[in-house]
Amino acid sequence: MLQKLDHILASLSGFTPEVWLVVAFVGIITWDLIAPEVHAESRGGFFHGLTFLAFAFLGVLLVQQWQIQPRGVLFGSMLRLDDRAIFFKLLVTLTALITILHSWVTGRRWSGEFFSVLVGTVFGLLVLSMATNLLMVYLSLEVVSISSYILTALRGDRKSSEGGMKYVLFGSVASALMLYGMSLLYGLTSTLDFTNPSFSRALLETDPLVSASAILLAISGLLFKVSAVPFQVWNPDVYEAADTPVVSFFSVAPKAVAFLVLMRLFSVLPLNFQPVLAVLSLATITVGNFSALWQTEAKRLMAYSSIAQSGFVLVGLVAFSELGQQTATFYLGSYVFASMACFLLIDILSTSRSKNEVPIQSFSGVGRQQPLPAILLSIAFISLVGLPLTVGFSAKLLIFSSLWEAYQHTNASLFLVLFVFGLLNTAVSLAFYVKIPYALFFKTAEPGQPLVSLRWPQVILALVLVIPIIALFLRTDWLMNWIAGFVN
What we know:
NAD; globular; translocase; transmembrane; 488 residues; NADH dehydrogenase (quinone) (non-electrogenic) activity; transport
């Protein structure tokens, strides 16, 4: 018993960033309850600053953790602290900081609940990035999901409430399937620790159809979070209903950590899931790209774009190799800048007065009024397509290189089909990614369309997000060598 207590106390040193988030969560709620009523504008600005400082200090703690914290298991193998977990925690913290800045520069005025729920979401993601126990995966994923439901519906109008309810309904089904699959895996293996050798050994001794069914059910919640087919139907409605800074956060942070858990699971599974993943990847890319072709609303277009981008990350996992995981991690790291830049610039360049609907026609002629931000948005879209001079080209090149290497080792025709159709889908995506740049520069403003006026913090934040898109193309090795050092 004393030995277990000593282990728990020792584990707390590796849990310091998460403890800080709990303190920040309680502090924000407490301040919101006891603070005197002040002018709404100064109150909103205060919470933005307070939350930004909380996330900035979280980043400092994570950098220190990377430098000096010993790696190993925490709390009786419930969590595992390694370089990959810290990298994804840094990625989540970066997205949270950008979300707060996006909200601030666009003049959002939230109550304290928004900031406390956002902190709670980040806490769930940080725990999920370390989870190596099926129960911890489920609990931390539910923390993220429930917080996401609240963030979607927090604005309180009819559209956001409907989006939040749809999110809850679809999320509940995925959660139930995942929990049922995890219970089957526990019954088959007698352990919840999927890194335990006995977990893989027990699955090897089980009928392949039974174990494969249990695994597919268990990962359904993760596939839901990354918007993979057939769990993608919630995505467009939620993206349209939620406020743009919230959608920007959803497009990157939960997906990145869910992919990390999938990488951990697939690295220990004894079964060959490559054909299943190849089909899922191809279906996700195709559904995302072809559905986006008919979209006339910017946020729904970005929703289908994010579905397709998840499919491309799955291509890296199909390889079932060290290179495949490295390229998938690189893709997620680079996608942060392109996706969040697009949402920021869509938010500040649109002339639509609606908080929910952002028609593509609302960008007509804006590029002539605001050429620099319009060019920055075009660069971000070019990166999402995967064209040269942007990091998106490097990411797709690396992803398909890992797939080609897997095809050469296995000679599986399914991999070749995925390779060819993946490249064709990339060409198809160009047709819808140019819709907004075309409207910006080649369409004329409609009669009565308001002028777009930007403030310097908005332009600076846009520049900060777009510059890495070019820099990481010129020096891809900066990020790739870092990732290669810990993804194995």
